[in-house]
Every structure is written in C-alpha cells, then in structure tokens.
What does this fold into?
Amino acid sequence: MTAEAAGSSAAIGGVSSSLTRTAPEARERRSWWTETGGPAAAALLRRASGVVRVVRPVAWVLIAGAIALWWAGQVLGWWELTVAAVVVTAVLALCALFLIGRTAYDVSLDLNRTHVVVGERAVGALTLSNSGDRAILPSRVILPVGAGRGVFEIGRLAGGDTIEELFAIPTTRRAVLSVGPVSVVRGDPLGLFERVHRRDEPVDLFVHPRTVSFEGHSIGFVRDLEGMTVRDLSRDDISFHALREYQPGDDLRHVHWRSSARTGDVMVRQYEQTRRSHFVLGLSCSPADYANDDEFELAVSAAGSLGLRAARDSRHVDLRLPGRSISATTGKRLLDALSGVGHSRPRDGGIGELAASVAANVAAASVVVLVCGAKVRAAALHEACARQPYGTRVLAIVADAGAGASLRRVGDADVITIGALDQLPGALRKVLA
It folds into this structure.
C-alpha cells in the first residue's frame, strides 16, 4: 500500500469514527425534539393562531398604519407622525383590554318545536348560567339561524345567576334551518378585536310545506286489506279468477275436487294477482318544468298532501326525487324530506327521466303519482305516464299557479291541473267519481 493510499484509508477511518461518535448525539437530539420541541412548537402555533383570530381586519389596518407612522416619524423626524403613531397605538391597547374576562357560560338552547309549517313561528329559549364564583362581564351572544343570526346583549352576570332570553324565528319559506351553535363574543366598542367561544350544539329546524287534508282514502284505489287486484294471473293468491286444467308443478292444495269429479280432469283454481298498496310519489325538481318558484312550491305542497294522506292510511309510501329515493314510513319523515327539496341540476332531466326511474325501480307499485309544473308538454307527460308498469294506476298532478282546477285523460292516466292547493281535494273527488 502506498503512503497516499494509507493516508486516504486513515482519513476514511477518521470520518467513520467521527460518524460513529456523533450518531448517538444526533439520535438524542431527535429524541429531545420529538418529546419536547415538537409539542412545544405545536402549542406555540396554536396559541399564536388563537391570538391572530381575535384581530379583526380593521385592527390589522390600524396596526400596519401605526408601524408605518412610527417608522416615518423616526426616519423623517416629524413629531406629528410620532404623535399620530402614539394615538393609534393607545387606541389599539385600550381596545385590547376589552378582551380580558371570562365567557364561561353554561349555555342551553331549547326550541319549543323543531317542526313547523311555512308561516308559523318557531319559539325557543336561550338559557345562560354562570356556574362560577366570579362575575362575568357584559358580552354579546350570537345565535346563527340559517344564513341569518340573532344577537343578544347580555349584561354583567354574577356568580350562580341565570338569565333566559326568549326568541321567535319567523318562517316565510320551506327550508331546513340550522339553529346554532351559540357563540359568546367578547369585544371592544370599535370592533377592532373580538374573542369568540362557541357553546352548545346546533339544532335542525324543519319548515314543512303547506298541506291540505281531505277525507277518505288517499286516492281510493285499494279495494281490500291485501291490496288491489290486477290483470296478471297467479297460481297462488286470494282473489279467485277461474278454473283450469292441472299442470305439472301446480299445488295440489288448489285442486277443485268437485269440478274435477264432474269433468273427469283434474281442475285447479287460478287467481288474480294482488298488489300491496305501494304508493309512489314522483316529484319533478327540474327548473325547466316550472314557470316560477310559486309553481314549484305548489307542486311540493301537493305531493306532501297526497303522501301525508297515504301515510295516515298506512300505505307504503315512496318519495322519488331526481337521483334519490326516500322511504316515508311516517308522514313526519315525508314532510321532513320535502322541507329540504330544491331545484335539481339541469342535467338531471325532467319528468321523463323521473318516470323512467320510477318504472325501473318500483315495478310493484300499485299507485304512481307524478307531480310536475305547467311547462311540461302534453306529449312528454303522456310518455311519462305510459312508461309505468302494466296494471299500475297512474295519476299526474300539474301545478299551474293561478289556473282553475281541471281533469283530463292522457292515455290511461288521469291528469289533474290545480292552480291553488285548496283545489286539490275537489279535483281528487272528480277522479273518484
């Protein structure tokens, strides 16, 4: 080995020994950072984030202005700029003092009714309690209601005291409103700083569509407790149709022995197939099917009225909307679903695609009601009704705001046109006549 090579080997060996010595120190430093430095930095970031959140945009502008005034006053030597910087800084400091104080209220939000009809008021109570020993300084309490909010000015609340604020939520449109969460706000009069603490959990308020009640069965199509008979024949059911000759595979329990003895051939009973009272509501939500929002609301109310009557008559009710289906086991669930119904996307199609979906997915329906607006053409409505399974009773409701009630036949379906919700019971009586 040459001297140069030996020197290189020595150098490499020195580096290796150095790495061997420093590796435990590096692992120790990483372990210290993982156990101490990391959580401390995360806690510091959370604290800094909390401080930044209390500063409003106007305060950031004033802070930047104060820094600029201090710098300009020192560089340019203008005493006026320095005085202005002192004034702005003093205002910021005084406003920041308003953040001092606890906001540890025990908050309870109670809505008297979480299900109301359009036009009714939802009344509730907001209870704030100070469970501590020290008083809580005045603060503002904000109650979000959908896109709006209510503001309550709460005065000084001594330790152990409770205050209750009553409120009423007016409802002008059908919707599902999220009430809450309650926010306790501590801030200054100028709105430069604001500290927000959220309390309690939000509550859903369902604003149901208007409905109309009518007597009798929902549509009167069901003739017995088991269902309505159709023209399809069955080997085993309850509605007797006729006798026919025995075929291999027939149930011997249905052999009619008297007829068999008289004819000399084995005769069996044949039945008409019956269907359970499966009530399907198809509501078109396409904007192209309606002239305006009033027509759409009328259609939703008509669908809710029919479905509510069917649910009260213990029918199996399915609500079909573009792209989804809701099994309305109760009238309340049906109206809750209708509370959040809005216009669908244009690509979801109109009454034609909805009718095709109903026919494909609910083939055993006994009654299908299709609800749409006045802009649906007669040919499209005829095609939608004709798509329903053979033997299914089809009824179409056309909402035409301001029009008079009318009844016409489109193929095998009855088509009712209504201009107001109170026209629906009379129009249905004409169908049953």
